[in-house]
Amino acid sequence: MTKGGMESVELFTTEGKGRGLKAQKEFLPGDVIFAEPAYAAVVFDSLTHVICHTCFKRQERLHRCGQCKFAHYCDRTCQRAAWLNHKNECSAIKRHGKAPTENIRLAARILWKLEREGSGLSEGCLVAIEELQNHVDSFGEEEKKELRADVESFLEFWPPHCQQFGMQLVSHVFGVISCNGFTLSDQRGLQAVGVGIFPNLCQANHDCWPNCTVVFNNGNHEAVRSMFHTQMRIELRALNKISPGDELTVSYVDFLSLSEERRQQLKKQYYFECTCEHCKKQLKDDLMLAVKAGESKPSADTVKEVVQLSKDTLEKINKARMEGQYHEVVKLCRDCLKKQEPVLGDTNIYLLRILSIASEVLSYLQMFEEAADYAKRMVDGYLKIYHPNNAQLGMAVMRAGVTHWHAGLIEAGHGLICKAYAILLITHGPSHPITKDLEVMRVQTEMELRMFQQNEFMYYKMREAALKNQKIQVMPEPSNENAPSLFHKKE
């Protein structure tokens, strides 16, 4: 069996859930169960000039296609690799006069591939594109209206000399994109930059507490002639020990919401009722709604009042962030935390959401000591709620570690960076850029920690001198987006 091949999984059908994937062999945490290249993928409309259209990496300078002036690439290697998929698109854009939206471009790429390869199973696919779920029958009026508009735009873009497909298949492809489009991220995994269709991944059913995770690997196009040359792909990785015959599950939504909220989101976006154990038994809901324990336990009315205040504050924070008013965001967070702290428990999701925003924005404003305090409390709460090998937990712990390092809290910073590294080794693997960055940080903080333990006074003197000579690393500007979710759903 080749590593990442489909021989290690089996397609099966269950009552009520439809198709799913089962393990054919044992897997340990961090094992790649399979890797899958995209059937078709496109960059988001808003990022077509800054993201490579082949490997989806963010680059400073990109080469532009000389023909259509629309597609952008890292270099000639990426441009050559893209030509098979871009050739028809290139001439269609020139004929049409402009590039259509990402949905139209993705549908066109899927149908050009069907024109080239014919219907039925593609190489390495367990399921044909025509057999994927489209959920068109479950669409509401607004979604049906959008579907009709997409089909009309597609027909205007689709060249008359290309194979003409029936309306049913075209509508089916748009339905597939709507509920099975997978979010592609940049090389750091921090920003959603595109959408792709991965037929095998589509077969993995949802569980709020899954045994697998999915990571997007941009591939290594630079090593053209070496054994390390790899194409863009997704990797399904094991989070726990998985036995032969176990169903392979992934989570379509972030776990950090109440079970009822997750169920509503899944019903609205993916058209199914979640019956996982965590939803049925409302596991962890008690932690996410925790209130201060002890003799002076707050009344139900007080809790309700503070929760409403938290929701209102989050709306105000979003508005202030959109306008770049970060000092206003900090003020809103501090005021809200003062009201929350005597009432809400350490794992309450409303408290954790405010702590997360406060630590991120304060880090950006270089107010590191206060940011580190909030980040530590946030991580302590997350560790009690999230699966121990959750990718979003790993990223949050990493950010907290970097914040502590910036604050000069070397012992806590190193400990958090080591913890994050252990999680991301499983969720992302040792060769992912973010894991490699973390390994560099781990080695650096370990060296600094040894120096600190040998002579604390000299450590601070040297650190002070180093920071004077070298501009302190500015934290990235806080993003208004959540971490990229697994499947891309057009809102």
Summarize the structure.
By secondary structure, the protein is an alpha+beta fold.
Measured between the Cα atoms of the first and last residue, the distance is: 40 Å
Class based on secondary structure composition and strand pairing? alpha+beta
Question: What's the number of helices?
Answer: 15
Radius of gyration: 24 Å
Range of strand content: 5-15%
Biggest beta sheet attributes: 4 strands, mixed
**Strand order within the widest beta sheet:** 1-2-12-9
CATH class identity of the largest domain: Mainly Beta
Low-confidence stretches: none
What is the strand tally? 12
**Into how many domains do the coordinates divide?**
3
Overall average pLDDT = 89
Outline, from the CA principal axes?
globular
CATH architectural category of the largest domain: Beta Complex
Question: CATH homologous superfamily of the largest domain, by name?
Answer: SET domain
What is the helix/strand order? EEEEEEHHHHEEEEEEHHHHHHHHHHH
Q: Report the helical percentage.
A: 40-55%
What fold name stands as the CATH topology of the largest domain? Answer: Beta-clip-like
Keywords: Metal-binding, Methyltransferase, S-adenosyl-L-methionine, Transferase, Zinc, Zinc-finger
Domain SET: 7-253
Protein name: [histone H3]-lysine(4) N-trimethyltransferase
Organism: Urocynchramus pylzowi
Show the helix and strand layout.
Elements: E1 9-14, E2 18-23, E3 32-36, E4 40-43, E5 63-64, E6 72-73, H1 76-96, H2 102-117, H3 141-157, H4 167-180, E7 182-185, E8 192-197, E9 205-206, E10 212-217, E11 233-238, E12 247-250, H5 259-270, H6 277-280, H7 285-288, H8 300-322, H9 326-340, H10 349-364, H11 368-385, H12 391-406, H13 410-427, H14 433-454, H15 456-469
Parallel strand pairs: 9-12
Antiparallel strand pairs: 1-2, 2-12, 3-11, 4-8, 5-6, 7-8, 10-11
Helix pairs in contact: 1-2, 2-3, 2-4, 3-4, 8-9, 8-10, 9-10, 10-11, 11-12, 12-13, 13-14, 14-15
